[in-house]
Amino acid sequence: MAPNQVWIPSVSTRVAIVAEGQSGGLAAIPSTPGRVGWMDWTPPLGAPAGTVVIAGHVTFNNVPGSFYRLPNIKPGAVVYTANGAGTVQAWRVQSANIYPKGKLPASVWSSTGPRRLALVTCTGNIGLVPKQGGYAHLDNLVVLAAPVATR
């Protein structure tokens, strides 16, 4: 694997990871389909604790986004990440849950506690989301995974 990448074989997804911050109180997410954003206020991939949050679009301007296939993931699937140094980490999916937009559990953003990976994308019906300035998916899919191996 190339450095700064996430690969999810079970849903045929391999995309580059770029650091992203916030814009107007919302997570900034790359609009390029081949990229996802590591939310840089969460622990980095090599951190010993806390939840690493990586987010990507399911669609963007009516085009499949980087996490277009993520809604098809199942618990037990393996996700691989490679940090900037090229260290590969395998993660096993524990859950995939849907939450109303803006109502993700606080534990998703935890910088302490068990080491986890959260993959986040939009899902559900399209509706007016004033905070986002227009129409968007009304829900978020949060896939949580725990580390299983490093090589």
Could you give a quick summary of the protein structure above?
The protein has 151 residues and is mainly β.
> Regions with pLDDT < 50 over 5+ consecutive residues?
none
Radius of gyration over all CA atoms, rounded: 14 Å
Helix percentage: under 10%
Q: What number is the mean pLDDT?
A: 90
How many strand elements? Answer: 12
CATH C-level category:
Mainly Beta
From the spread of the alpha carbons, the general shape counts as: globular
In terms of structural class, how would the helical and strand content be classed? mainly beta
Distance between the termini: 11 Å
Secondary-structure element order, N to C: EEEEEEEEEEEE
Main sheet properties: 8 strands, mixed, barrel
Q: From the coordinates shown, what is the CATH architecture?
A: Beta Barrel
Strand order of the largest sheet: 1-2-5-6-11-12-10-9
Number of domains: 1
Per CATH, the superfamily is: Sortase
How large a portion of the residues is in β-strands, by DSSP E?
Answer: over 45%
CATH T-level fold name: Sortase, Chain: A
The number of helices is 0
InterPro entries: Sortase, Sortase_dom-sf, Sortase_F
Pfam family, one: Sortase
Organism: Flexivirga endophytica
Protein name: Class F sortase
Key attributes of the depicted protein:
globular; Sortase, Chain: A; 151 residues; 12 strands; single chain; 0% helix; two-stranded antiparallel sheet; mainly beta; eight-stranded mixed barrel
